[in-house]
């Protein structure tokens, strides 16, 4: 499907809305990068338990559990950062607002609620209920 890039870039969004969404994406990207640094510093701290550290009893278990939680948060934030970065790239390339799977408009309300959305509601529903597109 070949569609003129300037028309596709609009995806039902005016210039002010696109500018606001870009601002929100950049702010979220900054938050995620800041949180990543904080979480990595927590893991690197001396009091952080590692597989090579032996701490007896409940204290050791709690420290290892805390590390697991930080690692899970890092994985989640990394995925979120990738989604935000991809949305910014689509915005730059004039492909923002269009489903990366089916090519249809994502929808203004969805983008306002989740600016990094790359799938329309229908494709997102298929992904969540069937596990794959």
Question: Strands, helices and their partners?
Answer:
Blueprint: H1 5-10, H2 15-44, H3 57-93, H4 108-113, H5 121-130
Helix pairs in contact: 2-3
Task: Summarize the structure in words.
The model is unreliable at 1-8 (pLDDT under 50). The protein has helices at 5-10, 15-44, 57-93, 108-113, 121-130. Helix content is 67%, strand content 0%. The chain is built from five helices and no strands. Helix 2 (15-44) packs antiparallel against helix 3 (57-93). It has 133 residues and is mostly helical.
Sequence stretches where pLDDT stays below 50 over 5 or more residues: 1-8
The number of helical elements comes to 5
Instruction: Name the overall outline.
Output: flat
The sequence of SSEs as H and E is: HHHHH
Structural class: mainly alpha
How much helix is in the residues?
Answer: 55-70%
Largest sheet, in brief, is: none
Rg, alpha carbons: 20 Å
- Per DSSP E runs of 2 or more residues, the count of β-strands stands at 0
Quaternary status: single chain
C-alpha end-to-end distance: 19 Å
Strand percent estimate: under 5%
Rounded mean pLDDT score: 82
In short:
This protein has 133 residues and is mostly helical. It contains five helices and no strands.
Notable traits:
single chain, mainly alpha, disordered N terminus, 0% strand, 5 helices, 133 residues
